[in-house]
Amino acid sequence: MRRLNRKKTLSLVKELDAFPKVPKSYVETSASGGTVSLIAFTTMALLTIMEFSVYQDTWMKYEYEVDKDFSSKLRINIDITVAMKCQYVGADVLDLAETMVASADGLVYEPAIFDLSPQQKEWQRMLQVIQSRLQEEHSLQDVIFKSAFKGTTALPPREDGSLQPPDACRIHGHLYVNKVAGNFHITVGKAIPHPRGHAHLAALVNHDSYNFSHRIDHLSFGELVPGIINPLDGTEKIAVDHNQMFQYFITVVPTKLHTYKISADTHQFSVTERERIINHAAGSHGVSGIFMKHVTWNWKIYSRNNLLPFQTRILQACQFCPL
After folding, report:
1. How many domains does the chain have?
2. Which residue, among 152, 155, 131, 151, has the nearest Cα to 79 in the 3D structure?
3. CA-based Rg of the chain, rounded to a whole angstrom?
4. Residue 78 and residue 294 in contact, taking contact as beta carbons nearer than 8 Å
5. What count of Cα atoms within 13 Å lies in the side-chain half-sphere of residue 140?
6. Each residue of 9-57: pLDDT tens digit?
7. Which of 16, 75, 264, 303 makes a 20 to 30 Å CA pair with 239?
8. How is 78-129 classified by DSSP, letter by letter?
9. Among 173, 139, 149, which Cα is nearest to 257's?
10. pTM to 2 decimals?
11. Distance of CA 22 to the CA centre of its chain
């Protein structure tokens, strides 16, 4: 009896239908109707896939908080080529907080050819085009944050096999400094210990042979994140006088980047530039060389997966301007 009651219950459930059905005799299949159905199902599938990809996409959201981590060191990543031989130039960092010199032991001096090969010139031209677009279209910075991790922006090696002797020095590597105002500089002579802090031995270098034409292939702060294009990447300056000073005033902002693909502690920075010829008789004093004066903000930016347009515009507007 229980089995019969169960069968009757199942048959009643199967027969229960609150919606009227069109009799099968009223339905006629056709090739055009099947085509319309196929197109409709394909469209719905594509829309579903597109909605899922939009759901997975990263929308940048910027949040600000005070950076309380003063004990850790700030990493500086450098790749600069100077149009002088390596034995004539030296690079180091002067820490203004403690008035001490931090030697640049993490840097490598590599003899190089200053003129680029055709492939390298094309790479530099494309990088400069991207830099100009970034300054005009600030929203492209979000695109770089989201997709630049897939590639690299390193200068490609020479492909022409030139036998020209090296006439320049490529200074590359990284070093660590305190999170305070500092001065990374490249000038004539090697840094030597001095009781009062800082000196370069340049007595053996002919003054007329000074040439601080330089190319900045890469300059960044913090964790090295491949693919990110920084404001000074691809910069090239040609000296018009042997006694010339190039200055870069850099404001560094700590940035924590969190997306569903990557989590990184890096830094953004804005920069202003100045160059002048040293002429003591005309009142233009100083030392020939390349000087990068950097200062770190005590505000930290968090980049996450949602978009706040107002805060985003604040950051992008300051990406290439002094803060």
Report:
1. 1
2. 155
3. 31
4. no
5. 15
6. 777 766 666 666 666 666 677 777 778 889 999 999 999 998 887 776 6
7. 75
8. EEEEESS-GGGEEEEEEETTTTEEEE-TTEEEEEE-SSPPHHHHHHHHHHHH
9. 149
10. 0.71
11. 63
Listed in sequence order, the DSSP H helices in the chain are: 2-15, 31-56, 118-136, 140-147, 309-317
d(CA 118, CA 126): 12
Q: Does a structural domain hold residue 37?
A: no
Measured CA to CA, the distance from residue 301 to residue 297 in angstroms comes to: 10
Q: Which two tokens stand for residue 19?
A: 């919606």
Strand partners, 78: 173, 219
3-state helix, strand, coil in the chain (%, to 5): 30, 35, 35
Q: Which residues of 186-204 are buried (b: 16+ CB within 10 A; e: fewer)?
A: bbbbbbeeeeeeeebebee
Residue 236 lies in a domain: yes
Q: How far apart are the C-alpha atoms of 266 and 220, rounded to whole Å? A: 9
Query: Residue 271 domain-assigned?
Result: yes
Determine the Cα angle at 314 with ends 61 and 63, to 5°: 35
Instruction: Give per-residue pLDDT as tens, 175-195.
Output: 888 888 888 889 888 777 666
Assigned token pair, 50: 């597109």
Contacts of residue 301, defined as CB under 8 A and 6 or more positions apart, other chains included, come to: 62, 63, 64, 253, 254, 255, 256, 268, 315
What's the sign of the alpha-carbon dihedral 75, 79, 81, 86? Answer: positive
- Domain range enclosing 244: 61-156+164-317
**Alpha-carbon span 218 to 184, nearest angstrom:** 14
Per DSSP, the three-state class of 183 is strand
| pLDDT score at 319 | 36
